[in-house]
Every structure is written in structure tokens, then in C-alpha cells.
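::Encoded backbone::
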Amino acid sequence: MEIARSTFYHKSKEKSLEQLKEEMDLRDRVEKICLGFPKYGYRRVTNQLHREKWVVNHKRVLRMMRENDLLCRIKKRRINTTDSNHSYPVFPNLIKNLTPTSINQVWVCDITYIRILTAFVYLAVILDLYSRKVIGYALSKHIDTNLTLSALQMAIRDRNPAPGCIHHSDRGVQYASSEYVNELRRYDLRISMSRKGNPYDNAVCESFIKTLKNEEVYLWEYKTIEDAKRRICHFVKDVYNEKRLHSSLGYRPPNEFEKLLMENQKPSVPCQSVLTQSVQS
């Protein structure tokens, strides 16, 4: 019949009504995920869809997000909040090449600034290095020791760490002050500090701050410090700890990850040291 062999294998590119409906439902769900988490990349969107039992390839999700202009575009911004020019003692880095194996073994902390309508306010945070959960935070108009102490006291009250837990920070005066160091020693926390001018020593906390800025702070205009406190509290408790997927935790939220630990299910985590990961994790 002089018909090419490829004709036998030809499949029509026209989609059935069922396929079109499935495509529209998937697009709607992707858009809702991106609205809820504006800085999610296609990998996290894909993993969220898998958690909801969607059978979909990451390439398809990437194409769909690109076609609908849903891919995030992150602007890098940075301001120095560390004053290491002080006379207080500094401590060695105890977590270099260390990979924690459980919660409350290593805590990491940092300070960042947040702009409100007429000024800047400052946020101090403490994370558990193993579960990436925010366990302590405080917001203030002043970048001083009282700010970091408030975050520390929240973490101690909620976690009740055993003696020997490592507290890691930068060399800033807020963490090196006698008042703060005495509080750490009071609860038998081991003191660790980053090397001078090396942000990679505290990459996990830097990663959280970047996430906070891109997924919460840059999307709102806070008029007062009370506005900032209310929104950041919501983001930390209801979004970051409860819902946001973390690639380093096998695409689970920190609360779910810790719950599995408590149930002795031992969720798998990447084998490489969490300290050497990209801050984009």
C-alpha cells in the first residue's frame, strides 16, 4: 500500500476529554501549591504532589510551572548583623564535619533584620540541626543580648535539652557576652562558634533566614513590630515547622519528621554532612 512503517506506530496528539480534565486539575493544584508557598521550586511542588498521591513526573511539573509563570525568581539581599569586634572570649567550632544523629544534639542560631514601615527590627532564631525545626525565636527593636536570650529561653523551655547539647552561633557580641555564655553554662550547653567571616559554618540557619525572607518577609509590608510578630509567628509555627517540605528531611516538614522519630520509625535522611549542603536546601 506504499505506507510508511512509522504510520503503524503513529499516535494522535489530540487529548481525550478525560486527559484534558486531568491536565486542568493538575494545573489547578500546582497553582494552589505555588500560591501557598510562593518560593517553592518544581522539585518541592513535585514532592508535594506525590504526597497527595498524584502520579506525575518532575519534568511535567517544571513545564507546567514555566508555562504559567510560576517559577520563583529570588533576589539576594544581605546586611551585616554580626559585630565580632569585642573583647569577649570566642569559642572553637565544635560542629565542623559533624553529622548529628538525633534531635537536641546540636542547636544553631543566628540574627537577621526585618524592615517595618519606619525602622528595622531584629529577629533571633534557634534551629535544631537534625530536624531543621525552629525551636526558639524572638523579635525586638534592639539587637542586643536580651534579644538572643529570649530566643534561647524559649528553646530551653520547650526542648529541655540534656547536658552536652552543642549551641552553635557566630562570633557576634550578642552570643559572646558574659550574660549569654553564663546562661549556656547554666544548662550545661557546649559552646561552639563559627570561624571568622565564614557563613558556611552556619549554613542551615542561613538557609532558614533566606527562606523566611523570600517566602514571608518580602511578600508583606509590616507597619509595626506587632504586625511582624504576628506574621512571623504564623510562618514559623503553621508553615515552616508544620507544612513546608525540606529536601534534607526526605521532603517532610520538621514536625512530621520529629513525630516519626518519636515513633521510632527512624526516617531516612541524606547521608552527607548537613553542614556541607548548599544553603538552598
